[in-house]
Specification:
This protein has 188 residues and is α/β, with parallel strands linked by helices. It has helices at 14-25, 42-45, 51-58, 73-82, 100-112, 174-178, and strands at residues 2-5, 86-91, 120-122, 133-136, 150-154, 166-168.
């Protein structure tokens, strides 16, 4: 199988690092804990008057490199490779890409080793990337074309409305979900 795995919210704990930095830098401002997050884009959960500060936190130099791996994520990638699957890290850069692009490569080298940097596919539009499955926390993934992959949702509080039939976390029996036959939804 050719398995595409998203980075933020699947391999790297974007939400945790944001909340930590936000509360440290703006201790008097409101914050939204992970279980209260409802929109995919963090910015949209915050009041309009705080959005430039929110944006400033996750575009800061060093932010992306210091994200903690989501528990079980690194091991899961190694298991997929050990089972002889092709695995690529499929990630979209921020529109304000200056720090995030380099730091995503550094993060992969830090946590997976340099060889894995050759397995990064960076595309704002994931529908143009070929694969059998894409494990991604974004609830609805659209783009220029009809994707070849089946979307497996990485479960997060902000994506529960997704209609994709398959959903996992690394704490689940993810192997049985990833390697099961595609759900023939709508086909009788
Ligand atoms: Mg993501």
């Amino acid at each position: 199988m050719l398995i595409l795995v998203d980075m933020d919210g699947v391999l790297a704990d974007f939400e945790g690092a944001f909340l930590r930095d936000w509360r440290q830098q703006y201790p008097d401002k409101p914050f939204i804990s992970l279980d209260q997050r409802r929109t995919f884009y963090l910015l949209e959960d915050y009041p309009r008057e705080l959005r430039s500060e929110v944006h400033g936190v996750y575009t800061a130099l060093g932010f992306f490199r210091k994200l903690d791996p989501i528990p079980g994520a690194i091991e899961a990638l190694h298991i997929m490779r050990a089972l002889s699957h092709e695995v690529f890290i499929c990630t979209s850069p921020l529109y304000d890409y200056e720090n995030c692009v380099l730091e995503k490569f550094q993060w992969v080298e830090d946590h997976l080793g340099k060889a894995w940097t050759q397995r990064i596919v960076m595309s704002a539009d994931k529908t143009v990337v070929y694969g059998d499955v894409l494990i991604d926390d974004k609830p609805l993934i659209t783009g220029a074309t009809q994707p070849q992959w089946e979307h497996i949702v990485y479960d997060q509080p902000y994506n529960r409305e997704s209609e994709s039939p398959r959903r996992l976390t690394w704490a689940d029996d993810w192997k049985s979900i990833v390697f099961s036959k595609p759900a023939l939804v709508g086909l009788v």
